[in-house]
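Got a spare moment? Tell me how you read both lines of this record:
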Amino acid sequence: MQSQTRDSRWLALVVLCAGMLMVILDQTIVNVALPTIQEDLGFSASGLAWVVNAYLIAFGGLLLLAGRLGDLIGRRTIFLAGLTVFTLASLLCGLSGSPEMLIAARFVQGVGGALSSAVILGMIVTMFPSPGEQGKAIGVFAFVTSAGASIGLLLGGVLTQALSWHWIFFVNVPIGAATLLFALRLLEHERGVGLREGADVPGAVLVTSALMLGVYTIVDAHSFALGAISVVLLAGFVWRQATASRPLLRLGILRSRNVAGANVVQMLMIAGMLGVFFLAVLYLQRVLGYDAVRTGAAFLPISLSIGVLSLGFSARLNARFGPRNVLLPALASMTAGLLLLSRVPVDGQYVSDLLPAMILLGIGGGLAFPALMTLAMSSAAPEDSGLASGLVNTTQQVGGALGLAILATVAENRTGDATSAAALVDGYGAAFTVAAGLVLAALVVGIVVLRPSRVATAGAEAAEPVVVTG
């Protein structure tokens, strides 16, 4: 990819981000349409959760394997395959006329999403080896991954109200087809290191089974026995990787405190944030009476804040102060925003009770995501960049599933059988407090584990971030 011209590389980045945006949007665009889907297809209350869970299990379970396959047989090949599967599965989701068909199509969609998204960050750091350009490219990618979630809420509301829930899936088909055509033209063919360098079939079975079972346990089963089996399978995978002559995952990638620490911080941060999106939607609709479009619009300050910081300032700040020193105040900002949300009243006003929290969350997200991605990819060799990218996405998905399960359980236990607005707000407030605790824990891990990097001097070019090597 390094033979690409400067202009073609930035066009290729747009293609990669378009593929990622489809995946990110799909994770939140469905939430707003769930009540309509339930009424139209006759889902039971418990069955409706599988519209989300089927996707999460396939997506979260295959990310690590997909990232490594990208290193072995070529990241471009895996990206194109994933994009094709995701687009076709989106068509099947939109055509679904029964709960069973939609759930099956959502599982296949999760497979495609895992294949395409797992290798994108690895392709970006390979295309942009220069620290300055890499910082800018990661800023664009971070904007897409973080702001896409709130954009999905707005788009889901608009499509559901203006057309029908089927279009939240149909919209992926022309976008996916166009992205595929441009990807074939703009992404240069690359050779992987070969399956012989890491075709660890037992390891692949162990890690995929462990992650799928773990995500299933978190999002639906809540079973100690299944959770224990998942941990045993994961321990077996680690043992296998430590002893195999050609492991699927080189454990040395985790010896860097910044790489390992960044993934732990990200998991805790996403656990606090993603569940909040879900619960804040419920607060706006059930307590304040917002419709789907107004609910999505309420999250625009987060998207705008993330966009301004990710695209305009994050690379310069990472260059000047180092990603760790940018990350820590960003996490503090997010914690403050969540604590403000924990105090929302029954008769809340958007400008006074919600907007300040939204701005703090947007500022924190806009600074935290690029810094975390820089840290998480900092010690990955080119032949392991797909694996490191898959690991970043895996911790995101596991953190999101874990956070949603924890926060929804906290809210439900506090509310109990009561249906009054006051009881609902009490439950949401308790969940927001727990979310703040999760992000605060991420801040503590960042302080203790992450190491500062050398930063540019005052007279150095601000757009040239120093990539962490610790």
